[in-house]
Amino acid sequence: MTRSEYDGQGESGPLDSCDRRIMTVIDALHKRDDPIPEDLDERVLFALELEAELDARVASISQNDLVLVRGEADLAVGQGDPASITFDCETVTVMVTPRPAATGEVRLDGWIGPEGTYEVEIRSPEGTKRASSDETGRFVLEALPHGQMFQLVIRPDEVLQREGLPAVVVTPAVRL
């Protein structure tokens, strides 16, 4: 084909029935092979809230034991030993263990290092809950919704900040 044969084709021409069929097939392939995550809205909201925290350090997931193996049997959360998630940034480590509660909700036991007192906030689509750690960094958050995305916001006390800890540490959003 010469250049003149291409004139009038492409992006400037109107869609015809063949173009519509091609677009329908492409749309169906995307929906089947790469669907939009159901929790996309939740993830976007968490990311926007994170950007609002100007001096936040983002902790990464360093260990995720959501399925434990003992011998031949797999143990999932709520069966036998509880699973833990560990988040790390340069100066702070946070380990949380979700435990199912009798009400069908989740209790989150947590430990923060280095030792000291922290304000802990958990954000989820259901809202925000707060707790304070004891002097050893231990905290508990109860009555959390099962199966929801959550994000922790950790604020060390002033003494720890003077020792070099960041004012805010935020974990990535993960599902309980």
Write the layout of secondary structure elements.
Blueprint: H1 3-6, H2 17-33, H3 40-52, E1 56-58, E2 60-64, E3 67-70, E4 73-76, E5 85-88, E6 93-100, E7 106-113, E8 118-124, E9 127-132, E10 138-144, E11 149-156, H4 158-162, E12 168-170, E13 174-175
Parallel strand pairs: 1-12
Antiparallel strand pairs: 2-5, 3-4, 5-6, 6-7, 7-10, 8-9, 8-11, 11-12, 11-13
Count of beta strands: 13
Please tell me the overall pLDDT: 79
Q: H/E order of the elements?
A: HHHEEEEEEEEEEEHEE
How many separate helices? Answer: 4
Poorly predicted residue ranges: 66-81
Overall structural class, as computed from helix and strand content, comes to: alpha+beta
Roughly how much helix do the residues carry, as a percent range?
A: 10-25%
Domain count: the total is 2
What integer value in Å does the Rg equal?
Answer: 24 Å
Strand residue content:
35-45%
Main beta sheet: 6 strands, mixed
Summarize the structure.
The protein is of the alpha+beta class and 176 residues long.
Description:
One of its GO terms (molecular function) is carboxypeptidase activity. It comes from Glycomyces buryatensis. The chain has 176 residues and is an alpha+beta fold. The chain has two domains: 31 residues; 136 residues, no CATH class. Helix content is 22%, strand content 39%. It contains four helices and 13 strands. Strands 1, 8, 9, 11, 12 and 13 form a six-stranded mixed β-sheet that branches. Strands 2-5-6-7-10 form a five-stranded antiparallel β-sheet, with no helix packed on it. It has a two-stranded antiparallel ribbon with strand order 3-4. The longest helix has 17 residues. About 9% of the residues have low confidence.
